[in-house]
Amino acid sequence: MLKTMKYKGKNVLVMGLARSGMAAARILKALDAHVVINDGRSYEDNADAKEMEREGFQVICGGHPMSLLETGFDLIVKNPGIPYKTTPLLLEAQKRKIPIVCEVEIAYAISEAPFIGITATNGKTTTTTLIHEMMQESGIKSKLAGNIGFVSSVVAKDAKADEVLVTELSSFQLMGIEDFRPHIGLILNITEAHLDYHTDLKEYRQAKLNLVKKQLESDFFVYNADDDFIVSQLWQTKGKTIPFSQKKEVEGAYLADNALYYKDEAIIAVDDILLKGEHNMQDVLGAVAVCKLYGATNDAIVSVLCRFSGVKHRLQFVKEVEGVKYYNNSKATNVIATQTALRAFEQPVVLIAGGLDRDHDLEPLAEDFKHIKGIFAFGQAKERFLKLAKAHGIYCEIFDVMEGAFEAAVKLAEAGDVLLLAPACASWDQYVDFEERGDAFIEMVEGL
């Protein structure tokens, strides 16, 4: 760990505990910062707060009182999930010009290892995993970090200079960076999402583009040449731009003659790539471009692409029962992700959808109703799915919980069909996260 002097003697407020907040607080303390912790959960049921208190931290629980700012903080390190626009303390801190960052900024400050940063509206976890496995297969010492489930600062603390941190980053995290600079930044796509968190689409897009704003001429920005918006924003980086494309030959990774190429060199036949679907090909191309830049071998890339079948909860094949194939895509928390999942199949699809109603426009789903046999909707958004289905002549039933939707969907599905969980909604009305929702679905399928 680099013993940076950046935080020495600084008064720092850490907002939000859980793993990232606890890690940030401990690292900042080790770097001689004066740390106060604030968590929205009540103290009585807050094991994290009690643990940090035992370690000697001052912990304030039960909300985010404005009086905290009277302490005179030099920096706020906040949990990515705490929104700016609806948290008065953060709005006031911005007015007072107090820097607000997320824990990944701390990770960057202490890491001896360089970063590869990956972001997108859809596909970033699959791509991050592919890059890591291709690196490992090539003998490159890579470590997973970030939004994929490994707290960046914890990974960075132990990383060595001859390693690389393959880091998945959300727009929430990228809103809170100042100096963070990946040696290679990858943006797969930017479409409308998380507008309940961000002020508007412009802010969301800029959060994604923050990934490459601090890059230098010695860095690289791998980008989707098929995404017109991303192409229009290449001016935001000083790094060397490396494109990938599914539609045309480019000076990077592309498809031609049923093969995947990198700069005129054929790497692998498309038919040999285990991951199927247009959306997965985007992820594969981005991963190949990054790995070739970092020195991964063709043999390693081919080996991974011939065996990699996907990431849990991302169009994950669960099992086949009586001729019906069951797929878990609980990670499809927005309309575009669900459309992408539907386009992966040519056979009839029985769709289970629903969850937290964030008032997203569901109408675009109708573009991909060609193979839908029926929709079984649950949760807060169920009535909106029913209205959509009726408007387009699609059979639909609604339920309060996913268990009811699943049982009814199984009755409709026949041999040759796909039964797909692709909710198009967040999970937080009934589940802790999309993983818990996906695990519940898997358990239902295994119980058949």
Total of helices: 15
Shape: globular
Strand content: 15-25%
Give the mean pLDDT. 94
N-to-C terminal Cα separation, in Å?
A: 49 Å
Number of beta-strand segments: 20
Strand order in the largest sheet:
7-8-6-9-10-11-12-13-14
Going by helix content, strand content and strand pairing, the class is alpha/beta
- Rg (CA only): 23 Å
Helix content: 25-40%
| Low-pLDDT sequence parts | none
Largest sheet: 9 strands, mixed
Structural summary, described in words:
With 448 residues, the protein is α/β, with parallel strands linked by helices. It is built from 15 helices and 20 strands. β12 and β13 (259-262) form a beta hairpin. It starts with 10 loop residues before the first strand and ends with a helix. The mean pLDDT is 94.
Brief overview:
The protein is of the alpha/beta class and 448 residues long. The chain is built from 15 helices and 20 strands.
Keywords:
single chain; 15 helices; 21% strand; globular
Topology, pairings included?
Elements: E1 11-15, H1 18-30, E2 34-39, H2 47-54, E3 58-61, E4 75-78, H3 88-95, E5 100-101, H4 103-110, E6 115-119, H5 124-137, E7 142-146, H6 152-158, E8 164-168, H7 171-174, E9 184-187, H8 201-213, E10 220-224, H9 228-232, E11 240-245, E12 253-256, E13 259-262, E14 265-269, H10 278-294, H11 298-307, E15 316-321, E16 324-328, H12 335-342, E17 349-354, E18 372-378, H13 382-391, E19 396-399, H14 402-412, E20 418-421, H15 434-446
Parallel strand pairs: 1-2, 1-4, 2-3, 4-5, 6-8, 6-9, 7-8, 9-10, 10-11, 11-12, 16-20, 17-18, 17-20, 18-19
Antiparallel strand pairs: 12-13, 13-14, 15-16
